[in-house]
Amino acid sequence: MIDTKNMQRIGGQLGTNPAGIFQDSNGRRYYVKTLESPAHARNELIAAKLYQLAGAPTLTYVNTKAPEQIATEWLELDKKCIAHLNDSERKQAQQWFGVHAWTANWDVAGFNGDNQGVVNGKVLTLDVGGALAFRAQGDPKGKAFGTRVDELEVLRSDDGNPHAGKLFADMRPEDVKQAIMVVLRIPDEKIRQLIIDCGGGHALAEKMIARKADMAGR
């Protein structure tokens, strides 16, 4: 369990949330963010677990002593901007489009196209703090995070999210269908159990199952 009080800070904040790179006594490095509340941290952890349940690559999350903190194992990236992805890497990123839409990850591309990175040929989503109930900077989404998965269209066409558009706009209908199938293959009971085990409520579990059903209807 990560406790920054017993670690050395060796690097500064990289995103919008207060954070730093910390190193433990064994030389292992972690990126630790301090969020607005334990609810924000729990929201991000649940989102990361849902990504992992779907098979979508993310950073490796580590438990923290402080309930308002989120920690991930530090990785040196080979690429850290959507603009630098080659065609094969873009196709790799697109196969997880359904997971991004399902979890309402409006920040999937990042403000500067910097939320998708590459390590050893694998494309990762670097931060899922903009998924589920909160926006990346912490504001609640409210009714905008409902049971309809409008993100299936919005993430490919919203002028306010140009980097996501660049990444997903050229997906063919068959590509979108295959990306949706990634989510539809997850059993409802596994979704429900994961969310409850991570401290989420039954309302969130039922919403995510309803969002999956909405995707099936598309």
Task: Spell out the blueprint of helices and strands.
Elements: E1 8-11, E2 19-23, E3 29-34, H1 38-54, E4 61-62, E5 69-73, H2 87-94, H3 97-102, E6 116-119, E7 122-125, H4 151-157, H5 162-168, H6 173-184, H7 188-197, H8 202-217
Give an account of the 3D structure.
With 218 residues, the chain is α+β, with helices and mostly antiparallel strands. 38% of the residues lie in helices and 14% in strands. It has 8 helices and 7 strands. The strands form 2 sheets. The protein has a 5-stranded antiparallel beta sheet with strand order 1-2-3-5-4. Helix 1 runs antiparallel to helix 7 (188-197) and helix 7 (188-197) runs antiparallel to helix 8. The longest helix is centred in the N-terminal third of the chain and has 17 residues, at 38-54.
What is shown here, in short?
The chain has 218 residues and is α+β, with helices and mostly antiparallel strands. The chain has 8 helices and 7 strands.
Q: What is the subunit arrangement here?
A: single chain
Report how far the terminal alpha carbons are from each other. Answer: 41 Å
**Arrangement of strands in the largest sheet:** 1-2-3-5-4
Radius of gyration: 17 Å
Secondary structure tally: strands: 7
Mean pLDDT: 94
Q: What is the N-to-C succession of helices and strands?
A: EEEHEEHHEEHHHHH
Strand content: 5-15%
SS-derived structural category: alpha+beta
User: How much helical structure, as a percent, in the residues?
Assistant: 25-40%
Largest sheet: 5 strands, antiparallel
